[in-house]
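tokens incoming
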């Protein structure tokens, strides 16, 4: 991206009263794996990127206020495609959620604290895929209005599941195509940004079966039709191959987890252009705490049954098939902390994803997955100035994603534990 080629005299295009400033002397890494990576700067106005690249420097920004990044890495803010902000990330988060679900204000305050934790670690956008409408929509709107600070939130609100199915305690219940359509319409009317469906049972819900589908293809197709007609994306929790296959037939945009994905289903996902958010870190964090006696026995037993090799085989099936992989943490579930996206990206890289592609999974590709392509996840002109400043280069060492110096959201510096400039 050459600022002068794209913008001519870039300052003539900026209203001096629009909060214009520049971040200079940085090592830039665009979210697009084919995008610019190298020395340069970013010019910001009205919370958006005006220009970025090697030509944004002291001579091109004139008298505009600027900050010297000291050669630190500047990349797009991270985008977490799968969080649960109202969940506690403790050993038994479901029990806490059930206890608190009748107190929307309590859950909103918990979610606000979790959102701020994610922002402080470089996540500037999250997609919440399962929280009570009354809490998560209020927080989303409060952040958007500037009442409180936090990452941009896209929220599903209540998931669509069966009466006794996975996450029925935070869901709208359906049994057939007609009721599934009605539940999807209800969530759209309630203000959901995305529709989340439990296409299979899940680890955290006794009585549901993670190895079996919960809905017919007709019911899933009815949900997808409602979502797409309303301009919403639809994604499905799928911890068995059969559920993933049904989601593809029903024209879902993506699946979550893909825990037991077989090669043929992975190839079908790739042909359909449907992505997978693998949430590898759920197993990683579980293994760190596997002996904790507070973990519910049903979850411990199911986690052991879904061994690490099974999950990695499924991940590699998706990778080899060319499925679009996007980063999501499932934060809030058992021992998965909010703001752990750097861990998920590292695990994806260690499992075989090239480093620029791994970074894209949590920026450029993630932006496409949440329906905000071109708005976030990139340093391209016109995008929101959501930036992550790192003390080291993550292309050289992926662990550098944890070494956060500054977080910028829509052109404004956010509070982080370690600050680049005092």
């Amino acid at each position: 991206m050459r600022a002068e080629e794209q913008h001519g005299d870039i300052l003539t295009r900026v209203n001096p009263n629009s909060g214009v400033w520049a971040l200079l002397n940085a090592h830039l890494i665009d979210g697009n794996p084919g995008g610019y990576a190298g020395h340069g700067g970013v010019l910001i106005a009205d919370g958006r990127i005006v220009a970025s690249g090697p030509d944004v420097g002291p001579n091109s920004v004139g008298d505009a206020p600027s900050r010297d990044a000291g050669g630190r890495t500047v990349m797009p803010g991270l985008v977490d495609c799968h969080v649960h902000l109202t969940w506690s990330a403790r050993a038994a988060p479901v029990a806490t959620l059930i206890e608190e679900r009748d107190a929307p204000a309590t859950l909103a305050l918990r979610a606000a604290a979790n959102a701020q934790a994610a922002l402080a670690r470089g996540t500037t956008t999250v997609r919440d895929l399962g929280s009570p409408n009354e809490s998560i929509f209020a927080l989303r709107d409060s952040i958007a209005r500037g009442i409180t600070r936090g990452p941009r939130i896209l929220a599903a609100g209540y998931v669509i599941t069966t009466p006794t199915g996975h996450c029925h305690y935070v869901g709208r219940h359906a049994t057939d195509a007609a009721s599934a359509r009605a539940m999807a319409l209800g969530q759209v009317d309630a203000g959901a940004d995305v529709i989340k469906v439990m296409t299979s049972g899940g680890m955290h819900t006794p009585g549901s079966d993670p190895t079996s589908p919960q809905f017919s293809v007709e019911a899933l197709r009815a949900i997808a039709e409602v979502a797409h007609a309303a301009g919403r994306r639809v994604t499905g929790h799928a911890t068995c191959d059969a559920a993933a296959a049904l989601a593809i037939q029903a024209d879902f945009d993506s699946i979550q987890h893909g825990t037991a994905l077989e090669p043929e289903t992975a190839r079908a996902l790739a042909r359909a252009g449907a992505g997978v958010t693998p949430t590898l870190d759920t197993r990683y964090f579980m293994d760190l705490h596997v002996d904790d006696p507070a973990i519910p026995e049903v979850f411990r037993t199911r986690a052991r049954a879904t061994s690490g090799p099974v999950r990695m085989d499924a991940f590699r099936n998706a990778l080899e098939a060319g499925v679009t992989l996007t980063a999501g943490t499932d934060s809030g579930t058992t021992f998965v902390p909010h703001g752990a996206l750097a861990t998920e990206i590292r695990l994806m890289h260690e499992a075989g994803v090239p480093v620029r592609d791994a970074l894209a999974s949590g920026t450029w590709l993630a932006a496409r997955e949440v329906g905000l392509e071109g708005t976030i996840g990139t340093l391209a002109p016109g995008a929101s100035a959501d930036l992550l400043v790192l003390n080291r280069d993550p292309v050289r060492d992926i662990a550098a994603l944890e070494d956060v110096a500054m977080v910028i959201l829509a052109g404004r510096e956010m509070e982080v534990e370690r600050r680049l400039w005092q």
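note: The mean pLDDT is 93.
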